[in-house]
Write a structure and sequence with these properties.
This protein is an all-alpha fold. It is built from ten helices and no strands. Belongs to the binding-protein-dependent transport system permease family.
Length: 253
């Protein structure tokens, strides 16, 4: 990774924080109404052990839900990609489920599995993030040019060989594009459950604690911590994309 690709995002983040600080100062907002970036370091230090503990709980549940979304979303996408009948049957169900606001699903799951916070949180992270993966894999496979299949079949290639040599590489760019979206969606699901669940633990529960106590620096510190974790996971996906689908990058240097 070049120095420019590291410096440009860092400069953008610094400019954003400076603008945020200026906005709070210019409007004269008190801390009980709006926290400034300069208010966040004391909050991080005061609750440092809680941030470490809660951050880890949020992270592992999000990653667990995301891994399940990759496994089941990819499998479902393969089924829909190779079968028009399954695609026609499942697409309306997937679209309908995805159209339901997940904020309304979270309380239902929390009540169905009372006391099973880890399971609830992983489940909602999975449910909210598998849709883009399934759809992208399905589209990538269903739009495979038939000429490629015909040529390989004429050479005696099996269906497995066609999938491995043609279908899978063609689908990888769409898959990683969807995975970047799924990372942020998984964090949304995790934190919704952590806030709503009466047994919630994690950064979402820490945010809710700040809300109850009107501790705005703590609330904004949690939001920045969530953004940081999301950025880390996003760039992990970017690194994996460069390894497995770097050939598809056509952006100018």
């Amino acid at each position: 990774m070049s120095a420019r690709k590291i410096a440009v995002p860092l400069v953008a983040i610094v400019l954003f924080l400076l603008f945020w600080e200026f906005l709070v100062w210019f409007n004269g907002w008190p801390r009980y109404r709006m926290a400034a970036p300069s208010d966040l370091p004391p909050a991080y230090w005061r609750f440092r052990w809680l941030f470490i503990e809660m951050g880890w709980q949020t992270l592992w549940r999000t990653v667990a839900g995301l891994i399940l979304a990759v496994i089941f979303g990819t499998a479902l996408g393969v089924v829909m990609g190779f079968s028009r009948t399954m695609r026609d049957a499942l697409y309306p169900l997937l679209v309908g489920f995805n159209a339901v606001p997940k904020a309304t699903v979270v309380p239902i799951i929390a009540l169905m599995f009372v006391g099973q916070h880890d399971f609830n949180t992983v489940l909602i992270a999975f449910l909210i993030s598998f849709f883009p993966i399934a759809v992208s894999v399905s589209i990538g496979l269903s739009t495979l040019e038939p000429e490629y299949r015909d040529i390989l079949r004429s050479l005696g290639a099996s269906k497995l060989t066609i999938f491995w040599k043609i279908a899978l590489p063609k689908t990888l760019p769409e898959f990683f594009g969807a995975l970047k979206v799924a990372v942020t969606l998984a964090f949304i699901g995790t934190n919704l459950m952590e806030i709503v669940s009466p047994h919630g633990r994690g950064l979402g529960a820490l945010f809710d604690s700040g809300r109850i106590n009107s501790d705005y620096p703590l609330m904004f510190a949690v939001l920045i911590a969530l953004a940081f974790l999301g950025i880390v996971l996003y760039y992990i996906v970017v690194a994996l994309e460069r390894v497995f689908a770097g050939w598809a990058d056509r952006s100018p240097a």
